[in-house]
Design a protein that fits this description.
330 residues, globular, 7-stranded parallel β-sheet, 3-stranded mixed β-sheet
Length: 330
């Protein structure tokens, strides 16, 4: 992006939001981070950003931020992301993911904000029995309220954008992993469910064992297969995507992944290689809402944004996650 922009990043003290905030500051942009710190940490916000502690459910605060700041676009990460929790408490997910985002979009339209970037998920897709890569037009059939809440939000963004001229980039993440290679931020939620985070904690003795949820799936080794993407590559995709919709008004939906899958056992093996130790693994029942395999067809983002990943390596993801975990617990 050739010009300096001002972005409001909701959830910018969280895992993915903080990496995007750091990438935006590195690129010379002005950043305002809005986060209620329910899962994020203020220390993850870059020093060059303005931090506001608060919720996207606070309409008066949104009005103030969108009115008082020269906000070019909102990058929206605030929300709940734990699939099993969404199955047991769907009200929380529809309220905090879908309902709160509707209020945010309404305020953006009222204040004339130009664009929104929405943090969506591969959980919107109907998994394919053969595990083949999913393109953006693949069938949608979420297996959990989490995925459904994101799909509903996507629909709201498209309808509101079409009616009111709000440009939008919807990025569907596959499985995000790793940490900032410079050690400035990482996955900081102690009870996070991300596999590499949990495996790193287990390797460092912070958990007694790693639960492997199901080893009888119809996959090559019986464990779930996912398309893991390094969080720093994902952060760069966000900057390219927001640049695209600010310079080419309209809407775009893009998969964010590397186009290949790794099984749970392969991820565990990567952490074991990096640490040089065997992890204590316990076989547990399958979790509600887990698909056997989710792998991206990423051709659209490669072609449209000229996105070129720099960290496409499972061992590098594990190495950066473990380094962050050690730093976090000094």
């Amino acid at each position: 992006m050739t010009t300096t922009e001002t972005f409001l990043i909701t959830g910018g003290a969280g895992y993915i939001g903080s990496h995007v905030a750091w990438a935006a500051v590195d690129a010379g942009h002005n950043i305002v981070v809005l986060d209620d710190l329910s899962t994020g940490r203020a220390a993850s916000v870059p020093p060059g950003a303005e931090f506001v502690e608060g919720s996207i459910a606070d309409g008066d605060l949104l009005d103030k931020l969108l009115s008082d700041k020269r906000i070019s676009a909102v990058m929206h990460f605030a929300g709940r992301i734990v699939v099993p929790e969404s199955v047991s408490d769907p009200i929380k997910y529809y309220r905090q993911n879908t309902g709160a985002t509707l209020e945010l979009l309404a305020r953006m339209v009222e204040k004339g904000t130009r664009a929104v970037l929405f943090s969506s998920t591969a959980a919107v897709y109907e998994p394919r029995p053969d595990g083949a890569p999913l393109d953006e037009g693949a069938s949608k059939a979420p297996l959990s309220p989490y995925g459904q809440s994101k799909l509903m939000t996507e629909a709201m963004i498209r309808d509101i954008g079409a009616a009111h001229g709000l440009s939008a980039a919807i990025l569907r993440y596959f499985n995000v992993a790793g940490a900032d290679p410079k050690g400035r931020t990482g996955q900081s939620t102690p009870d996070a469910t991300h596999l590499i985070k949990v495996a790193s904690q287990t390797a460092l003795g912070q958990r007694e064992s790693l639960s492997l949820f199901g080893d009888d799936y119809d996959t090559p080794d019986g464990t779930c297969v996912r398309d893991y993407i390094h969080v720093s590559d994902l952060a760069m995709a966000h900057l390219l995507a927001i640049e695209h919709v600010l310079t080419h008004p309209g809407q775009v939906t893009l998969n964010c992944g590397y186009g290949r899958g790794s099984s749970v056992k392969e991820v565990i093996a990567a952490v074991e290689r990096v640490t040089g130790q065997d992890l204590p693994v316990t076989i547990a029942p399958r979790r509600a809402g887990d698909a056997p395999a989710l792998v991206s067809d990423n051709r659209r983002i490669l072609d449209l944004l000229d996105w070129r990943p720099q960290h496409d390596n499972l061992d590098e993801m594990a190495r950066s996650a473990i380094a962050w975990e050690r730093q976090l617990n000094r």
